[in-house]
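Changelog note: in this version the structure field was regenerated for every chain. One regenerated record is shown below for reference.
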Amino acid sequence: MEVPQPLATVIRVTRPDTIQIRTTLPALQSYVTLYLTLFGVTCSDSAKQEIVDWVEIHSDAGRLSLVTVEFLRDEYGRLVGDLADPQSGETLSGWLLNRGVAEERPGHFHDIIASGLESKEPEV
């Protein structure tokens, strides 16, 4: 049985690697606004406009599928994942790679885990 992906609405693109989204939080029957960074890619500065264009073309009534990686967060607290077209399944990171405004980042998962292990709790 396939688990449905939550839907997200893009609010704005703050940086080439950061997208502000709004999605539902089913456990609380509420919405949450968070920042998303794309998993597995490093974006160039020109990616910002490409992201805006992709969202306009692929969003279904303003909504996109949110694909997460176990709800991991990067060192800045941004959700790590991707956005997908609900109809075709095409992903934003795949689009950016095809357009040449992003490069693959094969060690991204390792970087996230390493930064989490290296972070220290503040001493009280």
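Spot check on this record: The two ends are 47 Å apart (CA to CA). Helices lie at 47-58, 92-99, 108-118.
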